[in-house]
Amino acid sequence: MKRSLIAASTLVGLISSDSLASQEIEKVEVIGTRAPLYSTRDINASALGSKDAQLLPISIQSFSEALIANQRAKTLGEILANDASVQNTSIGTVFDFVSLRGFQLDWTNGLRRDGLALAPYQDVPLENIQRIDVIKGPSSLVSGFNNPGGTINYVTKRPTQARFFDVTVELKNRASKFLHLDFGGPLSNNKDMGYRFNAAFEKNGDFTGGDDLKRTFVSAAFDWQLSDQLFVRLDSDFQDKKMVSQPLIGLSTDPSSGKTILPPYVDTSETLLGQPWALYETQTLNSALRADFWFNDQWQWVNQVAYSSNDRFTIFPDIYSVNQAGDVLSSAIHVTPDEEYQTVSAHTFVKGEFQTQGIEHELVIGLSAREYQSKDGRWFELTNPVGNIFNPTYTEKPNYPDYPDANVTDTSESSFFITNTLHFNDVFYTTLGLRHIQYDKTQRAPNSARVTLDDRSFNTPMLGINYNPSDTLAFYLSYSEGAGEGAVAVIGSGAINEGESLGPQESEQIEAGIKYQHAGINYTAALFQVEKMLEYHNRNTNYFVQDGVQSHQGLELNLSGEINAYLSTVTSVTFMNPTLDELGGDNTINGNRPANVPKFQANTFVDYTIPSYQSLSINAGIFHVGEREQNVSNTLTLPAYTRVDLGLKYQLSALNATVRLRVENVFDKQYWLSGGAKGIDWGVSPGRGRLISASTTFSF
């Protein structure tokens, strides 16, 4: 038997694509996803080896392409609204930005594509994505430098066993049009080669509306079984995207009390508060090559390399303050021109099994490297003529001033990792892992010599203990440490060190959890505590700093799967107790809560197939986010909100077509989505109003 077919439940990386977390969520779709050309649909977590998610001593949530299709999701933030441990912390609208367990993603390391790093500041298209995995907690053992809240990994679609051709067309209110082609199959009669292509075009409006954009996307993937021992896969995707740039809306002042209050609400998906010429433009390219070699049935050698780039021209309109009539009192437009970001990452590791003195070992040992270069660090400021948020003023594009050459920053990360899972008997085992990271960062400013910003090494261990009394029940306890990029002092904040990198920092987590599978339903519970230093704008010194301890204690409860033959759900609840302590630079905020972190968050998405008319299914989503502090000083609170979505799906068997209708924010709820991210505390981001979409997918 070909070794590409071994392990239908294999995750060559973080979790198995056939793990219960993924399977149960995929059951939201009445018709299952197509069988891949080979059963190794995987992501790559290197140091954790190949295991079912049920066996790993960490918390993982997965969201399938079926859920993405049913919810008509186009961006990361839309699909991760299904996870109550994920918070939306977007700055304006140009790309999604989220927090995991209350900790904001590291822009340069937090997003992965099939296990390897992506270039930052891009909205990853979902048209060629099979699944999105959310790995909770510090994951430096898994991925190297990373965010303390966790990692988000995009799993790309692979070639399929049978040829197919899908065409999806979609219309939405606000003059939105969308076309998506997805096709693939084997390239040879014996099915040892396969292909998968995706292409998409989307256009919203004419850049005078609040969420207007234009994008083109193409991707290709190839799998090739060269022999029983060697399996190679190659894939690449490209996106050209232009969209209007929307600001956070600055805060107001109560004229009677002088206190800072929230601004008046405006739906920025309808109203453009930037300028029609002030676009966020990106061109992104992601490519990867992977080769798996089997020495025998017990030992495998995995090699993977990836290239990711993002070239962008960015314009950020800022509104710093408004009055209750919507008049803009302070504003600017910041332009950061011709920025380039490139990442080359790779890893190679060997994994296998052996026994010593009655103890079974699963060993993973390997090397990884990442070279990241950014050309940025320059900006200029223009006058923002918007005037009033309810009746904005638009002007012609001004002439740009001359601007200097960019700073060139080179970051190098190399590491060695080893993990050993020791099985003492059929129900008890422990996971021991360590990654040693060498981290170097240098920078060259225009007409200046190259300087060293960082030259450090980190050891990031992990210890996990599992007790699995049956195949369906698992108890685990784990401790992990992490290391990751620090924040960048926000440009436009007025801080003395704006634009400066704050340097790497370390984090740690302890987690205990239960995973249980029963009658088609997957239940998980995790109790955790994560700690790192706080990064914030110290108003006393007017510097962005790292100081004190930001600690998040929480409980996550998740349920996903098929309740019966007609009813499926994805449900998630998170309770958190986030605190700030031990700050020396501004001890007045000791005991406060960090910004944008609710104490309670919950959501449920339910899909119901009509038993007497099984071509028709209806779905509903309820998404609740509790109160959040707008800033670390806790002087302003964002109110809790609940959003309701409704949808239906109808199978037209005669035409081999699927029709979907979806209404997001059915009751047109006005709410504040976030208070910004990475220390931005001058404004808030409004949630979008009612959105109606209708789509049809034809399958050939």
TrEMBL record:
Output the Pfam families linked to this UniProt entry.
Plug, TonB_dep_Rec_b-barrel
Q: Which residues form the TonB-dependent receptor-like beta-barrel domain?
A: 252-666
Provide the primary localization.
membrane
In its keyword annotation, does this UniProt entry include Membrane?
yes
Its membrane topology: Multi-pass membrane protein
Q: Which protein family is named in the record? A: Belongs to the TonB-dependent receptor family.
* SUPFAM superfamilies, A to Z: Porins
Positions of short motif TonB C-terminal box = 683-700
Localization (cell):
Cell outer membrane
Keyword tags: Cell outer membrane, Ion transport, Iron, Iron transport, Membrane, Receptor, Signal, TonB box, Transmembrane, Transmembrane beta strand, Transport
Q: Note the PANTHER family from the entry.
A: FCUA PROTEIN (PTHR32552:SF82), FERRICHROME IRON RECEPTOR-RELATED (PTHR32552)
- Residue ranges constituting the TonB-dependent receptor plug domain according to the UniProt record: 56-151
- The protein here is known as Iron complex outermembrane recepter protein
Q: Name the NCBIfam families on file.
A: TonB-siderophor
